[in-house]
Amino acid sequence: MKIGSDEMTLHLARIGGLIILLVLCTFYPFLPGEYDGLAVPLSALAQTFAMVGLLLVPVGVLWLAYELRKRARRKRNLPTKARGSYFALASMVASSIVAIAVSLGAFMGRSLSLGFLTLALWLYIVLRLMPRLKLLKKAEAENLNPAPLYLVFIPSVVFILQITLAAPAREFSRNRAIAQSAELMKDIEEFHTRHGRYPSFLQAVNKDYHPSVVGIEQFHYAPNGDAYNLFFEQPTFLFDFGIREIVMYNKLDEHLMMSHAAWILTGASEELEARQGWHTVHKASSPHWKYFWFD
Q: Are 243 and 231 in contact (CB under 8 A)?
């Protein structure tokens, strides 16, 4: 019995659909739209899956090589030892490690609901697959098993796309949020024109001015000498190794962003600039905007 072209097309469509879904989840925080508190945890889950999911690729490659060799030997009427169940069991173990890692990532990201949901989903999948594993131990089908295609292509393609598109995604969301701040900056300057000073604070129940990026919650404002700091926190990726990116505007280029509030309260004013705590600073594409990387 040979696997039909329609069946193979269906499996390839599923693989493509899962890749698209995981990529969309990864870059969801960087897309235009209203703020979504689940965007960053959801992106972290997709990123964790792609990174830890690379463990599945060697298992998938070996399993696929076995399936192709089995198929070739059967065409030549040569006997082949049935070992598909071993590869299936190995893939289950590796997949369980990936599922646990993804759940732990959710727990560490303080998204308990997503963590428990991931574990529950994986448990459901295991329960559904166990009968098939038992059948595979008794007798292997003659057609090509499509399972290794999922193991090889989904994590590897998603990971490659994450690495490739990460920098453009950061740049896009950063530039969009900066552009969306124009109305707020205009109103701040008009306040200064009317009152001869900048507002002391902009803390309010309704923010009114929005970055319009899914993963950026709000703009933050703080007076700073004869100017002010306007800033927001940009989403980052897991392979940025814990970096937090703060994007800030100061028209006098006197940017001040501290790593700890206690430093402001306990440090001498002349020490503040030297003790900010960031390790890298970059100029953004717009004048007087910079972005700082904190550990």
A: no
